[in-house]
Each structure stands twice: as C-alpha cells, then as structure tokens.
Amino acid sequence: MSAGMKLGVVLALALGLSGCATQNKPMLLDASAVPTTEADVGEDVIGGKTATSQAVVDEEEDQTHSGEGLEQKDEGEFGGEETPEGLGDEGGEEKTAGTRNPLNPEEAPQGEEFSFTPFEARDPELVIHQGVGYLYTTNIFPFGPPINVPLWKSTDLSNWDPVGDALEKVGSWAEDSWTWAPGVIGVGGQWLLFYTARVLGTTTDSAYPAGVQCIGLAVASVPTGPFVDGDSSPFICQESLGGSIDPSPFRDDDGSLWLTWKADTNAPHVNGTACIYAQRLNSSAVRLLGESTNLLCRDQDWEWPLIENPDFFRDSEGDLWLSYSAGWWDSASYSTGIASCERPMGPCQKEGQWLTTGDGLVGPGGVTFVTDGEDDYVVVCSWSGGAGFGEGGTGVTGVVQLARVIKHVRSQRETTTTLEGECYTAPPEFTEVGEGREIDWVPQRVDSIASLPTLSLQPSTRVAPLGLTTTTTLVARFEPLSPAL
C-alpha cells in the first residue's frame, strides 16, 4: 500500500543498488528495461538490471538469487514442479492455483465470521508449509520496535506464536525499518520474500517529498528465514512511474510463476494515476522475463485516490481473478475490488467492489489468496477499534472457513454479447426452456442445473438480475440450497 500501513485480518476459505545513494540523487532502474524475446533472455535480468554478481544461466534453470549467499538447492521437498505441503493435504502449496470451490464476485465473506488475534498484524501474507501457517506482515516501526517483517506461525490458523523478524536486514539499497507488504513463495527448495522499502537517500531528497519506494527480493532456505537480500539495487523500481510497491508472487496451474505489483504513480513527485502491473518470473522466481503489462488503472469513482495491493487467484472453474485494494488505506472508504482476467498478462475486466466497510469489516483491503491443498484462504486487511490510526484503529488477524460463509455459486459470463436492459442469454446447458432464446432469473435458488425446468421460466422473461448492473452480461447462475461444509 502506498503508505505501507494496512491492518491485517486473515480469512480462511474452504471453497503486500550500485550508485543508489550517489550524493543527493539515487540511481533508480526501470522494470521496463527487460528482454523482449527469448533470444534476449540470456542475461540475468533483475528488475531491469543485469546482475554482475551471478553467472548467466538458462531461464529454465533453478538458481539462487544473486548475492544472497545460499548454496544451489537440489530439487527436494518442493523443488522443481513439486509443491510444498499444507495444513490439510500433503500435496498442498502456498500461493498456488486450483482451488476447491469457484470464487463468485457477487458473494463475499462477512466480518462477523472472523476470529481475531490479540496482536497487531498489518499487510498480512499467509503461506502454508508442512502443516504450519506462516504469517508475514508489514513492519511495526514507527509504531513499535524496528522489526522489518514480523513473522508468526500457527498449526491451526487460529492460535499464533511469534517467530521474530523474517528480514533482519534489508538490502543495501534500502532504508531500514520502512518495509511493508511482503509477498512470499517457496520455489525450488528455497523461499523468496518480495518486500517494499524506501530507496536509501530519497527520504532526505527534496525532489522526492515522500521518498521513493521500490521492491526488493530476499531469499532463505526455510520459511522462518532469516531472509537475505544480497543485491545492491532493487528487484523492481519503475523510476519513471514513481516507484514500485506491493509485490505479490503467484504460481499458476501450469507451473508458471508471476509477480504482480503496483506502480507508485500517485507518489507526490509524479502525481499520476496508480496502475497495477504483472510480469512473468523465471522458474526459480529470481528473474523477470519478457515485458511487464499494465493490467488495471484507477478509473472508477469508488477507487479514488488510488488502487494497489494486487493478488491473483485461480478458482476451481479455472477462472483467473485479480483482487486489488482501492481508496485511502487509513479510512473506512478503503475497499477491495475484483477483476476477471484471461491470463496473468491480461486482459482483465473489473467486476466491481468485493469487500467494503460493513458486516464487521472496516476499510477491508490487501486481499491475498492461499491454499493448503484442501482448503483455500484469503487474507484481508481491516481496521479494528477505529477507522485508521487517527481514530485509534488497530490491526488484527482472523481466520474462518469460507464454506461457512459463501455457498457454491457459479457465474458464467459471455463477453461477446451485450444485451440491453435486464435480460440475458442462457448458455447451452441452460436452454431446456426456450432453446436459444432470452431468459432471466427469478430470485429463487435451485439445487442443480437439472431442476431448472421446474422453475417454468418462459422465454424473454424480464426479471432483475439479482443485483447485477446491466453492464455485466450474466448468462447463468445457480446456488445450492445449503452450503457445503
């Protein structure tokens, strides 16, 4: 998040430089300067720079991050295409695709279902490995001791034990104690922590009223760390766009690795429109491949003044979703939007707000998803005790199984046809009544597709589409009579 401070509420579902400080001006490197063809991907490109501290390797080799000092890891407990174990199933994997239930942008969890922790935890990132959940959060400085990335662990995602600082020292390019929005993933026998920090020297430079924030990468052999960033420059730093923050790694269901983040274009030294970007990572997640893609920009009134904190999630129907935060982090207006994407490189279509203030949540944002192989979890940030620090708000963390909150709801959309008014076209499997004609829905739940004829829907029946706006083309929807627990 732009100010690096959001409050953590973890919700479990069942369904974030060489020459850098030269005199007064830092030397920042733009993430757009990356190889554009397979032939170009021979150099070790990290955030648009060629790393001199690491031998050039093929893009498909697993390797350690340059300068981090770890030995090359053989494919072991989750090396290569294997996945780390999780709380529920030994085949589970953190930050992965293939969820047990489909996500529906019209249904959302409610705060009253949460079980909150007694400690402050902001910008939470949850990973699950060998039956243990690890919770990484934004630093607690200047609101407490100077801990860069506080870390807790739990075997039930309800009772948490403190571990300590996962990132005891930031990279030499960054300022200590100003880290937030960590993103963590296990790849090839090692763990990678992407983090946001302020570039050394920029906070005292009048050209950058709020400093310049960029993304670093630290590596460890175990999820508890210590994570080490041995690079002298950021992993990603889009200088021309104001900087880069809120990194979130993602493993798609084909095994490909991706990183999504926010360009800090709303920073005061740029004062532009905030946008979300994504780019592919190599198989060890230590290098960027190809070019970055702009997925979304702020263009809705409810998103003012910015969007941030992106995270990918592929559900059991194979649909790819992108969650993002919008509004101002230190207020009740902060909320979570959701977009559907064709691929990690886009295009993405906004589906509207998913989580807003109400139903026990205050300023919910910073959503991120995780699965343990059986159940799926989403991490959402919210205020407790007040909307923002100015109102005495505190960040807490809670867990709940989504199956108790969200029913199995499936929405099928047809993007090639836009109909007027409140009438939508049924897909083939829903055309027992009025083959190929327009039908709509009455506010009645059904237990299966087969029972649809019992509703006696007539062709061209015009009924309000269950709260959807006419800009969305809803072609099918059903709910079970009771949630699957």
Helix content: under 10%
End-to-end gap: 34 Å
Major sheet size, sense and barrel closure = 4 strands, antiparallel
Shape: globular
- CATH fold-level topology of the largest domain: Tachylectin-2, Chain A
Structural class: mainly beta
Quick check: average pLDDT?
67
Poorly predicted tracts of residues:
2-100, 397-485
The helix-strand sequence is EEEEEEEEEEEEEEEEEEEEEEEE
Strand content: 25-35%
Strand order of the largest sheet: 4-5-6-7
CATH class of the largest domain: Mainly Beta
Q: What's the CATH architecture of the largest domain? A: 5 Propeller
CATH-assigned homologous superfamily of the largest domain: Glycosyl hydrolase domain, family 43
Structural account:
Residues 2-100 and 397-485 have low confidence and may be disordered. The chain has strands at 9-13, 45-46, 49-50, 125-129, 132-136, 150-154, 161-165, 180-187, 190-198, 213-220, 244-251, 257-263, 275-281, 288-297, 307-314, 320-326, 335-341, 348-355, 365-371, 376-381, 410-413, 424-425, 438-439, 474-478. Strand 11 and strand 12 form a beta hairpin. It folds into two domains: 9-22 and 74-404, Tachylectin-2, Chain A (5 Propeller), CATH 2.115.10; 409-485, no CATH class. It has a four-stranded antiparallel sheet, with no helix packed on it. Strands 11-12-13-14 form a four-stranded antiparallel sheet, with no helix packed on it. Helices cover 0% and strands 29% of the residues.
